[in-house]
Amino acid sequence: MSISREDVLRVAELAYLELKPEEVETYRGQLDEILNYIGKLQQLDVTNVEPFTDISFPASEARAASPSSYRKSGKELREDVVGPCQVAEAILDQTADAVKPFFRVPKVIER
Amino acid sequence: MSATALWTVASIQAALLAKRISAREIVGEFYTEIDRRNPELNAYLTLSPERAYSQADRVDAAVARGEKLPALAGVPVAIKDVISTSGVRTTCGSKILESYVPPYDATAVTRLEKAGAVVLGKTNCDEFAMGSSNENSAYGPVRNPVALDRVPGGSSGGSAAAVAAHLAVLALGTDTGGSIRQPGACCGIPGLMPTYGRVSRYGLIAFASSLDRIGPFAGNIADAAAVMSVIAGRDDNDSTSASVSVPEYGSEIERPVYGLRFGVPEEYFGKGLDSEVKEKVLAGIALMEKLGCRRVPLRMPHTEYAIATYYIIATAEASSNLARYDGVRYGLRVPGATLIDMYRKTRERGFGPEVKRRLMLGTYVLSSGYYDAYYLRAQRVRSLIARDFSDAFQKVDAILTPTSPTPAFKLGEKTSDPLQMYLADIYTVTGDLAGIPGISVPCGKTREGLPIGLQILGPHFGESTILQLARAFESAGGFTLTG
Fold first, then answer.
1. Rounded to 5 degrees, what are φ and ψ at B481?
2. Which tens digits make up the pLDDT trace of B422-434?
3. What pLDDT is stored for residue A73 in this prediction?
4. Tell me, what's the pLDDT at B483?
5. Mean pLDDT across chain B
6. What does pTM read for this prediction?
7. Which of A1, A46, A97 minimises the CB distance to B381?
8. What are the structural domains of chain B?
9. Which of A31, B17, B55, B389 is the most exposed place for a label (fewest CB within 10 A)?
10. Residue A16: predicted pLDDT
11. Interface touch B356/A42, C-beta < 8 Å
12. In chain A, which residues have their Cβ closer than 8 Å to the Cβ of B388?
């Protein structure tokens, strides 16, 4: 599979990246080479293989999971309660444009 | 040799208790050495002398009161600049965070300081930890202290160089695809990547959340073990941190290795492996057998798919994690006529070429029409790679391989060819994908004098075993192997 100039411009737009006209072909060539290399995964038959979904709790164990085996895996979830944010002030102090307690950005709604 | 070269965790503790020197004086020695060497090496981006000296004074006060000293009392450490330090600038090696000052500490940093360690400053790295040579830093490359025309490896190049050049006794790095082990190998020092979940990631600025780990660089195995005992363990601020109990690594490492079984998968010795690296690593493996470890035949059939899998998953996760740098809340903001215009201009100015390349790749593999072919397939192959390891650890206690296919390469040698740069991680990404721990230990040098690394991989939460093997290897002279 190869990547076109239009594809590069489209992913740049999706990723909110602005590319200079002279950069487009460089990135296209490099991404093309990488995608060709990555294409080797197509050689493998993965029809009956589960995707790897949780690094700290393998899928095979998750199927047989009970709350106690979940805890035994070493993972614990805390109570879902809201705690105070003690760093808001410090973050707003160094932000480019803040009107506390808000971040100010260019206008997005016209009326 | 500089005065700082002789300090270890144990020798500092002994010297402080005997009142031969104060913690403040030790910190002074290190800053003097940093002033002398850092302009050339570029290992540190920011120094934190105020914080360091006040911590040193706390240690000296404890000595004066005759208190029992904590494990890392007065030990100078360097922190990779992707790990948050309260009040100390944290750039991630990026222009987009050039003036960002975190309002809180990473848990690993909090734990180091609670154990008496002294944070000297923040170390250079590839931008957002994306790279294998440290040449992707927005603040210039780090030079390898062993050979100044060579890279220190990456992405934790500054941390590795700082410890290797004795500009810190210990350092924290991060490993997503090899970023602790590969620079450890390039600079000739031990570097440990812990099991995923062993060390809290709270305060680690995310690159690829299912892969990122924090781990230590040290001058010797006992020091690496000492750091692990301090930073490992459950943290309520990181739900993926494990509540598996933390062993006393310091005593674990002295246990005999006789009878331990290890595998040497031939898939790690194929095309692209430098002949001198191969020769030394095989000599290191022979030394392990001489120490009474038993070599067991082993195949890891999915190894060759690891780099492709890694560059899909890591870039996909990065494209999501780095969406937060848009100029709104922290870091750089470049004004724009509209909100979207501001995002684009900020990211265009703030990110370097490798980050942009990876964000585009990650966006592409997740985009509509390509998700199944790339991302989902990569997650399935990741299962196969993880299964190779779980099968292997039914038969062996550890796996031995080269850390990197080549010794440290020359600055500029691979910058124009991203794919060649990615292949520097060919032996390390497997461990990241599987979530297992691994350590790189020095294993002699090339005829030109460049360090070579031996990688020891272990099962989940098997840090004790790999540290134990590393310690036995160190005691038997493996680090300076000449055979």
1. -45, 130
2. 999 999 999 999 9
3. 53
4. 65
5. 97
6. 0.96
7. A46
8. 3-252 (3.90.1300.10), 261-299+395-480 (no CATH)
9. B17
10. 97
11. no
12. none
Out of A71-75, B97-101, B287-291, B473-477, pick the least confident.
Answer: A71-75
Q: Annotated catalytic sites of B, by residue?
A: 80, 155, 179
Q: Which residue of B has its CA nearest to A30?
A: B418
The amino acid present at B241, given as its one-letter code, is S
The answer to whether B381 contacts A31, with C-beta atoms less than 8 Å apart, is: no
Q: Do A41 and B342 touch (CB under 8 A)?
A: no
Single-letter amino acid, residue B132: S
| Interface contacts (A, B; CB < 8 Å) | 170
The answer to whether B435 contacts chain A (CB < 8 Å) is: yes
Residues of A in contact with B374 (CB under 8 A): 38, 41
**What value does the mean pLDDT take over residues A87-110?**
91
pLDDT at A58 (0 to 100): 46
Chain-chain contact of A55 with B342 (C-beta, under 8 angstroms): no
Residues 25-44 of A with CB under 8 A from B: 27, 30-31, 33-35, 37-42, 44
